[in-house]
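User: Can you recover a sequence for this backbone? Please restate the input before giving your answer.

Assistant: Of course. Working from this structure:
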């Protein structure tokens, strides 16, 4: 077991990130290591789980337990791990494609189960790893992709609204250009008992150079955090998608409930055999 205080650099593995220069994910990675150091979490008590995509490379870069899973399947993996090993601090990393497209169904049910996980989604509103296709959070009129030269024509996914309606008990939005604020949000998310959803605006300047404007466009939510879903919903739908801060936090029973076994393992086995 780790007995000495660790610094942020101690949570970095020897694998160097290979994201594009200027990618917002570098700052998210830094905020994660700073949050772990602030909380003084031993490496052997942390697990980083991911799916597929640029952001899902994170388990290789964090010096902790980790699992790089299938596309969209990070949350089921993390759920099984947390239920089997409840003493672990389980962090899940993904992007807008991995989390809201192929993994959208798992996102809904992870929210409503309220298992004690921290889900960090780095949203750049594009599929960066596969060269710039529109993602679920891409605006309907964005027409810079060869696959959608006239835009998608489809309303974009609203992550915070979906998380709220599905039952997440902690919802926040951060920005990679504000690593200090992002670190504070991560600390709150990790220490929150239940499913924590941290939506991070993380620009992909390679395929979305227009996202440089986020630096001057982001702003604090007008109000919050809220404890009532109805009030949080009003703020979400009034926001322009660039509001930052903890929006919603409510303490509800965490699943699975802590139920003491009714008998010994031998008694349980006998019950199955009869």
């Amino acid at each position: 077991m780790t007995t000495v205080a660790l610094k942020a650099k101690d949570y970095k593995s020897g694998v160097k990130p290979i994201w594009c220069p200027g990618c917002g994910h570098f700052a998210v990675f830094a905020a994660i290591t700073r949050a772990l150091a602030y909380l003084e979490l031993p490496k052997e008590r942390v697990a980083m789980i991911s799916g597929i995509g640029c952001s899902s490379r994170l388990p290789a870069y964090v010096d902790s337990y980790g699992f790089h899973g299938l596309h969209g399947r990070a949350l089921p993996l993390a759920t099984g791990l947390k239920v089997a090993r409840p003493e672990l601090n389980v962090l899940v990393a993904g992007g807008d494609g991995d989390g809201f497209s192929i993994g959208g169904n798992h996102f809904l049910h992870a929210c409503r189960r309220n298992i004690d996980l921290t889900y960090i989604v780095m949203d750049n509103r594009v599929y960066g790893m596969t060269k710039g296709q529109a993602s679920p959070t891409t605006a309907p009129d964005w027409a810079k992709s060869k696959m959608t030269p006239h835009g998608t024509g489809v309303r974009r996914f609203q992550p915070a609204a979906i998380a709220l309606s599905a039952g997440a008990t902690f919802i926040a939005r951060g920005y990679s250009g504000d690593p200090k604020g992002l670190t504070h949000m991560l600390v709150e998310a990790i220490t929150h008992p239940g499913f924590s959803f941290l939506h991070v605006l993380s620009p992909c300047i390679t395929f979305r150079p227009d996202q440089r404007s986020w630096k001057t466009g982001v702003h604090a939510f007008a109000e919050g955090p809220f404890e009532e879903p109805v009030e949080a919903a009003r703020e979400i739908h009034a926001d322009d998608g660039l509001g930052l801060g903890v929006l919603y936090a409510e303490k509800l029973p965490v699943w699975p409930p802590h139920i003491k076994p009714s008998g010994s393992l031998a008694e349980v086995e006998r019950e199955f055999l009869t």
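That completes the design. The chain has a mean pLDDT of 93.
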